[in-house]
Amino acid sequence: MKCFIKTVSLILALMLLLSLFGCGEDKKPAFVAEDEYYNIEDENGASGQSDAGNGDSNNTSQGESGNNSQNSGSDSGDDDFEPIEIIERDGFIPKEIPTRKNAYKLSNTMNKLQSGKTVNVVYYGGSVTGGTGSSDPEKKSWRALTTEFLKSQTSGTVNAVNSALGGTGSYLGAARFEQSVLAYDPDLLFIEFAINDKYSDLSVQQSKADIEYMIRKLNAKNPCADIVIVLVTNDSLYGSQYPTYNAHREVADHYGVPIVDFGCELYNKFKGSSESFKKLLSDSVHPNDEGYRAYADIMIAALKEMLVSAPDAPHNMPASKLCKNGFSTLKNHLASTISATGWSCKWWFDNRDYEKEGSQFRYSGDLKAIYPKYLAPDEIGNTITFKFTGNSFGILGTVKEGASLKIVLDGSTEKTVAGVSRSELLEYPVFENLENTSHTVTVTVIGNPPYVAIAAFVTTNP
């Protein structure tokens, strides 16, 4: 009997030791609601415990060392990270940060994260979304850091797709939307094109129509897919609300799509200090590693606000579009399908001029896959006559310095497109807001040399 009691006592003692030293399976929760993984400042400047290196293999740690960061205001994972000094401004008036109180929550994405189902995330935009300026875009861009956060919130798989393309705006974004976004069946889509729409002088009306088309197109395929509109700025637009910025905000508000505004958030954090903001940039617009970390902190804080538990629910679209002259269908008329006497249809890699000088179509795998060939004029003065039915007409391709295109609609309305650089990407909505009837356009090469490449004509219908 005494031997039995001693044996039981020994077993109990061993069990107590095991519980004290934490042996056993360490299961990560499906969703971490508190600041357990990222060090995000609250309104009073207090920060939560950073633990980005914990979790299973689906949660890779931030930074090269993987050590926990205790730096105030950011979890960079870098030992040499120093927070940006905030310069006080007398009489500072905060900018209005786009509110998300009337936007839908990302509960459909949240449900997939919690259940451990595969979540498809697509990042769509320009070079700031791609990560230009970062020392390692696949690890240190806001896109990469946001993906790591999403991975840390699930026991399942997060498939992240980078469909961003530097130097491009929403017009080409709409044209390649099916191949670059819908093909990946996104559960969560980030859209960032406002700044490049500004750079390309895209009209406010066209910018709104493009974003509206993307929202409605994804919703038609998957009504439960979540979307976030992302807004960025540069050193000269810092603190301002430029026209295409407001255009994207208006569309987001109309459809209840949440907005994350990096520039506005940092403007308020830095109390309007442009010096503090510029320290986050590698040039006039692209963040450096520290800047991307700051952008990611803003995005992650917003996601923690938006990822809430609720039953799956489709995002119902308004019956009418915001843009009266917008479009519901878009067609790419590829170079290989356009009949043109005096023009040669070539693969992008066939033309040595384009190979030597560089072309975004020539070097972008995404664009080459969608638009594999182009039309090149055999000589100056050659014309293409093209007929279509629709409410707009545009051109995708390249027009290099010295070359120009004269484009005439229905024998009367004329526009000229001139190349401005040796590798200029052309994504140009030549004629907008047309009557949805039959039209004829003629495209004639003028200027010298005739460095013109037409990848596609783009037409739309309401």
Can you characterise this structure?
- The structure is a single chain.
- This protein is of the alpha/beta class.
- The protein has 2 domains: 200 residues, Rossmann fold (3-Layer(aba) Sandwich); 133 residues, Jelly Rolls (Sandwich), CATH 2.60.120.
- Helices cover 31% and strands 21% of the residues.
- The protein is built from 16 helices and 15 strands.
- Strands 2-1-3-4-5 form a 5-stranded parallel sheet, sandwiched between helices. It has a 4-stranded antiparallel sheet with strand order 6-15-10-13.
- Helix 10 links the parallel strand 4 and strand 5.
- Helix 5 runs parallel beside helix 13 and helix 9 runs parallel beside helix 10.
- The chain starts with a helix and ends with a strand.
- About 14% of the residues have low confidence.
What keywords describe this structure?
31% helix; alpha/beta; globular; Jelly Rolls; Rossmann fold; 462 residues
SSE order and pairing:
Layout: H1 2-20, H2 107-115, E1 119-125, H3 127-130, H4 137-140, H5 142-152, E2 158-162, H6 170-175, H7 177-180, E3 188-192, H8 194-199, H9 204-221, E4 226-231, H10 243-255, E5 259-261, H11 262-269, H12 274-278, H13 289-306, E6 329-334, E7 343-347, H14 352-357, H15 360-363, H16 365-370, E8 373-377, E9 383-390, E10 392-399, E11 403-409, E12 413-418, E13 425-431, E14 437-447, E15 452-461
Parallel strand pairs: 1-2, 1-3, 3-4, 4-5
Antiparallel strand pairs: 6-15, 7-8, 9-14, 10-13, 10-15, 11-12, 11-14
Helix pairs in contact: 5-13, 9-10
